[in-house]
Amino acid sequence: MYTLAWTSSPVGALLVYLFEPTNYIIPGWRWVLLISGIGGIAAWLYRFRLYESPRWLESHGRIKEADETMDKIEERVMKMNKASSLPPPQFVPYSTTEDKMPLKDLFKGEYKARTVMIWILQFLQGGMSFIIGTLAPLVLVAAGFSIIHSLLFTVVIDTGYVLGSLAAAFVLDRYDRKAEIILFAILLGIDGFAFSLIHIVGLILFFGTAYTFLDNFFNNSWHIYQAEIYPTRARTTGTGAAFSLSRIGTFIFLSTFVAIVDAYGAVPVFSINFLFGVIIALAVFFLGPKTTGKVLELISR
Questions:
Q1: CA 160, CA 214: separation in Å to the nearest integer?
Q2: pTM (2 d.p.)
Q3: Looking at the domain 104-299, which fold is it?
Q4: pLDDT on residue 268
Q5: CATH 1.20.1250.20: which residues of the chain?
Q6: What per-residue string of b and e applies to 73-92 under the rule 16 or more CB within 10 Å gives b?
Q7: Angle between helices 177-197 and 266-287 (to 10 degrees)
């Protein structure tokens, strides 16, 4: 799903490159937004085909629906793995009664450290994840390329988002997610700093594409991780609050970064970006639990 979503990045840049000089009935940039809007409507309609969480259904007393949903999921898993049966389920004692969890409870007990960790990660990654897409065209223009040519280069750089996410789908479950987040946060900081120092087109494209490639290993890891660290009763509250901070961070940092690039160049911005990677790595290392391969009910009680 995430891989498919990120195809919008290079496709969007390509559409801007193709439509920007045109004026068919309406200006070209309006066609780009119109196409995006149609895609958004299609995604909204497809949401009706998604399964409800069996854990959520069970916690609300809808046992029959939970069982039917599990049957559908298990049928798909067996089909995907060409299996005629599944191994017996592991019994884990837990209560099916899950009351609503208010926001303040995210800062109680075992969830306090997790919430602080994921809030730090989300606030800072909002700047890290979108820094290349926002600043690469500006860096290329500053290097003497026209905005149209810089957009074409951005198409190449943004293909890394798709390739990185696709590769991550086959790799992430093999290793510990906590370790993956730490590793890729540091690698993003290093790669971004190298990108800011380079003035040769080929190397700009290499380090820019490497950044987007690594970024979607990073993004896929923490998207899964933030859902694993909260129980069903708190997952929407916990992940929703954290992801809201991500959007706030994106607004604050990208607005600031553009001004800094204009005044001082790209090196100071990507130095800050490297610092963000270090802070995220430290927060996850000291405050984040290990989750990979563990039963959800044992991670969060």
A1: 8
A2: 0.80
A3: Growth Hormone; Chain: A; (1.20.1250)
A4: 92
A5: 104-299
A6: eeeeeeeeeeeeeeeeeeee
A7: 170
